[in-house]
Write a structure and sequence with these properties.
The strands form three sheets. A five-stranded mixed sheet has the order 3-2-7-8-9, with no helix packed on it. With about 280 residues, the protein is of the alpha+beta class. It is about 25% helix and about 20% strand. It binds benzoic acid (BEZ) and fe (iii) ion. Fe (iii) ion (FE) binds next to strand 7. Benzoic acid binds next to helix 4.
């Protein structure tokens, strides 16, 4: 086969993948070709635009290293991460919804006793955080692990300070009744990293880079699906325009002020049982 033109090229490429031995890989490659060709047919890029697209993807890859993942940020800001998350987390009624992991989770954060501060030495407004971990049917889960991280009062994660303390992350385990409590500082809204191609894309399209204030939680317990989620601050001006489309109503909570003047975030997490 030769002499392909714009009316015959798609079928020819699809046919070239027809003998792919792994049926899932065949499905993925043929869908990719169909959608990419459809995109090109719709947009009809000039050669200069096609070269600009290749340059953008090249720069995105060149921005990636072991501390920075610009392709995940691209996926996040195009809503792809939340779409993949939604498809993979069709949870039962009663389970706490998931949202994006984001690039700032670090494996192996220090495990601290209940009541400890997560944010030793960090400047910011003190905040108490407490709640419970249960199964989706309300059964308490003792010994559940909560891995927690958040930005500082300037909107930066500890890993963005080049490994310098204070750390703003820790792990806690629930008590015999499935309860947890610790103190920290209240994080603020912050921009996703804007010094790379994704920042240029947001700027060129008139989009802001902000995420509403939130605390990240990765909650796990035996016999249950691990929950990756955040709790957002009610009233934050960016709740309806999160740069990565991660906000869900059930994850928004008033960060109240207690009678003793301390800010407090209270949230109960319900995990979906493994089926
Ligand atoms: C975050 O919440 O840490 C995050 C998520 C997606 C992109 C950038 C940051
Ligand atoms: Fe975050």
């Amino acid at each position: 086969m030769r002499d392909f033109d714009e009316t015959t090229i798609t079928a020819a490429v699809l046919a070239r993948f027809a003998a792919t031995p792994d049926p899932r890989l065949r499905q993925v490659m043929q869908a990719l070709v169909r959608h990419l060709h459809g995109f090109v047919r719709e947009v009809e890029p000039t050669m200069a635009e096609w070269e600009a697209a290749i340059a953008f993807l090249t720069a995105t890859g060149q921005m990636c290293d072991d501390k920075r993942q610009e392709f995940i940020l691209l996926s996040d800001t195009l809503g792809v991460s939340m779409l993949v998350d939604a498809i993979n987390n069709r949870l039962p009624a009663g389970a706490t919804p998931s949202t994006v992991l984001g690039p700032f989770h670090v494996q192996g954060a220090a495990e601290k006793p209940l009541g400890a501060t997560l944010a030793a030495g960090a400047a910011g407004e003190p905040m108490r955080v407490e709640g419970r971990v249960t199964s989706a049917d309300g059964t308490p889960l003792p010994g559940a692990e909560l891995d927690i991280w958040h930005s500082d009062a300037d909107g930066l994660y500890d890993v963005q300070h080049g490994g310098e303390p204070p750390e703003l992350r820790a792990r806690f385990r629930t008590d015999a009744e499935g309860r947890f409590h610790f103190t920290t500082i209240a994080p603020t809204a912050y921009p996703v990293p804007t010094d790379g191609p994704v920042g240029a894309m947001l700027e060129a399209t008139g989009r802001h880079p902000m995420r509403p204030a939130h605390v990240h939680f990765l909650v796990s317990a035996p016999g249950h699906r691990t929950l990756v989620t955040h709790v957002f601050a009610a009233g934050d001006p960016y709740l309806d325009s999160d740069a990565v489309f991660g906000v869900k109503d059930a994850l928004v909570r008033e960060w109240v002020r207690d009678a003793d003047g301390l800010r407090a975030l209270r949230y109960d997490f319900a995990l979906a049982p493994l089926t």
